[in-house]
UniProtKB/TrEMBL annotation:
A Pfam entry, by short name: LysR_substrate
Keyword terms, alphabetized: DNA-binding, Transcription, Transcription regulation
Protein family: Belongs to the LysR transcriptional regulatory family.
InterPro entries: LysR-type_TF, LysR_HTH_N, LysR_subst-bd, WH-like_DNA-bd_sf, WH_DNA-bd_sf, YidZ_PBP2
Ranges where the HTH lysR-type domain occurs: 12-69
Key word Cell membrane present: no
Keyword check for Isomerase: no
UniProt name for this protein: LysR family transcriptional regulator
Amino acid sequence: MARPPSARLANLDLNLLVALRELIRERNVTRAAARIGVSQPAASAALSRLRRHFDDELLARGRGGYVLTPLAMQLADQVEAVCAAAERLFATGTSFDPGSTRREFTLLMADYTVAVLGRRLAAELATRAPGVDLHVRLVREHFSTDAATIVRLVDGMIAPPVRGFDLPGVRSVELFTDRWVCVVDAANPHVGHTLSLDQLAAMRWVAPFQPDRGFPGAAPMSRQLTRFGIQPRIRVRVESYQAVPYFVAGTDHVALLQERLAGQVAQRLGLRVLPCPGEPEPIVEKFWWHADLDGDPAHRWFREALVALAAKP
């Protein structure tokens, strides 16, 4: 007779979850031991038990150190989600003191949002909650298809409202707004003080999150160009917003970029920032979380801190 799931769970050493997470993160037994506050032999013993349980090496010797086995790579996201959920569960209480808490928050955001909020968020936590750890996972463009699952496994995600986020139990609050601009190399002789839609249609593009040669795509930039009726000639495709301006600099390429990000890099990279022709959609970045976290005072403090720092100029 099969044992019920609760009985199987009761027989597991849940400390192994923490060991598994740190071993996968560090790919080094000594560093993992330091992270969880145990001796190196204790961490080695935990790795041996995990290897027996999964019947897999998990960490395999490679050039210059250990590498993750395919199974370990498969387990990486799962153990992060499980540990984060467990930490939220046991950290829930009736009060919260940011100055003394030991808590990890897991936040999904695009690298563009990291450029806008990352420094301020790090300073806020260092000042007001020095015991808090932050795990930032970078958003990929396809993640909205799994929004219902993802939002349950993290403390929140920062993203614009898109189809698929309007789900039961999902909450949101606006953080900040932005707008699209065009960026070109400052020495580009073919571009004046403005750009027309006809010019944009004839130019060569740098495009973020464009998965293949097909068009249109689901990425925000692709949606804007579809809105303008432009099918761009894409010469460089990147999986990052912050990478875009580096492939415009020194070329005759053009790209759409968020104005806040463009303002940070334009002078340093020798770029000109021009108004976007047409009528691009405004950029609205929101913080999304699951209603299950409404009763957690630590989470309430975290999201209120995010809203407050995003409102600063």
